[in-house]
Amino acid sequence: MSYSIRKMTLADLEQVVAIDQVSFSLPWPARSFQFELTDNPASRCWVVDLDGRVVGMVVAWLIVDEIHIATFATHPDFLNQGIGKNLLAHTLKSAKEEGALTSFLEVREGNTVAQEMYRKFGFVESGRREGYYRDNDETAILMSLKNLSGE
Ligand SMILES: CC(C)(COP(=O)(O)OP(=O)(O)OC[C@H]1O[C@@H](n2cnc3c(N)ncnc32)[C@H](O)[C@@H]1OP(=O)(O)O)[C@@H](O)C(=O)NCCC(=O)NCCS
Question: 138 to each of 45, 55, 96, 116, how far by Cα in Å?
């Protein structure tokens, strides 16, 4: 499978929103992605492009020397084929090139697949927020990565 990772544009909005909606129980409204693309200078938004089809997406915020992964998903038809790892690696590497030293994210306690992926990059649990997710009161695990390697 040959795909490229490129900056998200407004033309990707429909496909990105579709991935978000099937991937999360609390998806973002389309206007939130639009805001990230047009009005948030801290935003770093990438997509995985497979022959014009968006099969992965990430929104991250570069705040001083930290890259915060805000939302991140692979299209359900393309799971477990390395897309997530490549997209995360690209996001971290690019942020590092812009001066990021650390990374941070929140993940549902029950989302062990994502947690496992983050651990492979060196993320470790750095805190918990009980009842953080308002749809089912699930706990958020806070994970952080010190010494961003960009690997
Ligand atoms: C988490 C997610 C982005 C991973 O994307 P992906 O493209 O399937 O990931 P990859 O194929 O690169 O796999 C990355 C790692 O995830 C884990 N993983 C992926 N699929 C898995 C599965 N079915 N079972 C267990 N672990 C799995 C493995 O640790 C894997 O590493 P490995 O290939 O070395 O074993 C994807 O599952 C997803 O979009 N989930 C829904 C949205 C979500 O939870 N986003 C994260 C929010 S914090």
Answer: 26, 27, 31, 18
Q: Which atom of ligand 1 is nearest to the CA of 105?
A: 48
Ligand 1 atom at minimum distance from 86 CA: 12
Residue nearest (by alpha carbon) to ligand 1 atom 26? 113
- What is the structure's pLDDT at 1? 78
Indicate if ligand 1 lies below 6 Å from the C-beta of 91: no
Please state, as a whole number, how many other Cβ atoms lie within 10 Å of the Cβ of residue 112.
Answer: 11
pLDDT in tens, 19-39: 999 999 999 999 999 999 999
C-alpha distance across the termini of the chain, in Å: 21
Section 116-123 average pLDDT: 98
> What is the Cα–Cα distance from 114 to 106, expressed in whole angstroms?
10
What domains are defined for the chain?
Answer: 4-105 (3.40.630.30)
